[in-house]
Amino acid sequence: MGRPINPSKIGQGTGKIRCTAYRFTGASEATAPAAYITKQVSTSKFTVTDGTTTETLVLSDLAQGALTAGTFIVEGVLDDSTRVQVTKLRNRTVQYDGATNAKYTLGGTDKADHSTSDSLVSIEIQ
User: Fold this and answer.
1) How far is CA 36 from CA 89, 100, 116, in A?
2) H/E element holding 12?
3) Which of 27, 31, 95, 118 is the most exposed place for a label (fewest CB within 10 A)?
4) pTM of the model
5) Quick check: 109 pLDDT over 80?
6) Nearest to 64 by CA among 50, 75, 49, 53
7) Could you tell me if residue 51 is left (phi over 0), alpha (psi between -120 and 50 degrees) or otherwise beta?
8) pLDDT for 59-108, tens place per residue?
9) How does pLDDT run across 3-12, given as a tens digit for each residue?
């Protein structure tokens, strides 16, 4: 699995990674109630809960509205304000849109919000 994601970045609460949309097995795709990651299983599998249902889901690069059962999406924003689907979450980097890797930060919208010149993905937060 590599280095696991820092536990301070997942869970319920302000400043934690937000699940943009999710689809539990046997349910429809949803964006509300807000769902959040409770545990990392691998770089692309996470235990997610909406406060009522808890299930291990797979990060997907499917578009919102097209999720299949057992998947969820986390959106990020690139330096140029382009929105992307995160497909793997690691301790210091993410993979998005299939095979592109970059460092990430929580919150913010583009490079102007950060003091680095590196390629950076801003992950949406709760």
Assistant:
1) 14, 24, 28
2) none
3) 118
4) 0.88
5) no
6) 75
7) left
8) 999 999 999 999 999 999 988 888 999 999 988 899 998 788 999 988 86
9) 788 899 999 9
| CA–CA distance, 62 with 104 (Å, rounded to integer) | 20
* Residue (of 88, 84, 71, 90) closest to 122 by Cα position: 84
Position 45 confidence tier, pLDDT thresholds 50, 70, 90: very high
Judged against a pLDDT cut of 70, whether residue 117 lies above it is answered with no
**What are the boundaries of each domain within the chain?**
7-73, 75-123
Contact 70, 55 (CB under 8 A): yes
Q: Checking phi first, is residue 47 left (phi over 0); if not, alpha (psi -120 to 50) or beta? A: beta
Cα–Cα dist 10/16, whole Å:
5
Angstrom distance (rounded) from CA 44 to CA 87: 6
Both tokens of 31, joined, read 């964006």
Tell me the C-alpha distance between 89 and 73, whole Å: 11
